[in-house]
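Section 4.2 – Deliverable D4.2 (structural model, holo form)

The reporting period included a commitment to supply a predicted holo structure for the target in complex with zinc ion. Inputs used:
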Amino acid sequence: MPGGNDLRPVLRVYSHGMTTASFQALVRAVIDDSVANTWADAVLEWEVDGLEEDPRGLGMCVCGQPNLVQLFTIRNTRNGNVLFPIGSKCVHQFEVKELDQQVNVLSDLLRLRTAINDGKFVTLTSEYFTRALLEFLYDEGAFPPDQWNGGDGEVDVDFLLKMFNKRDKDAITPPQRRKIRALLMTKVFPFVQAYQRVR
Ligand SMILES: [Zn+2]
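Output (structure tokens):
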């Protein structure tokens, strides 16, 4: 495109179906609230802080994109600034692996909570869980020490990960099934339902 004088707002499509105009609005919003003043440096200052769901889709992303259902909050680790709401597509534009993982794990947590609240029969399968989600739940304190895990919550999550990773689910014994059920009912589900960073 000679001269770069083409001012049409939509010039080309970015990854995740994003337009140039939206991407530029995103860049402006992020740089305005960052310490760094270049996009490449600014994206490194942020972490994903929370996720709210609005089934009515009334939210508008910081890039101007309307009809957001999943509204993420991101927080600048250098100056404490917060951007809200921002959609997952825009967070993916940062191209920072940790942010993508945080978006995914909070989305997974929300999906799990919805299933629990809808009364679905939630089991330890990839329909509701991922390895990353189990590890995240442990990191966030879902497995407090008690007499059954010998005072170490890591015992609980290690057990669940081991069961989750079993390719042959028929190899899980009845006592193991009961233990999985107990951990889900007494620790995972109440923790997920009360988890404040997802609303
Ligand atoms: Zn956006």
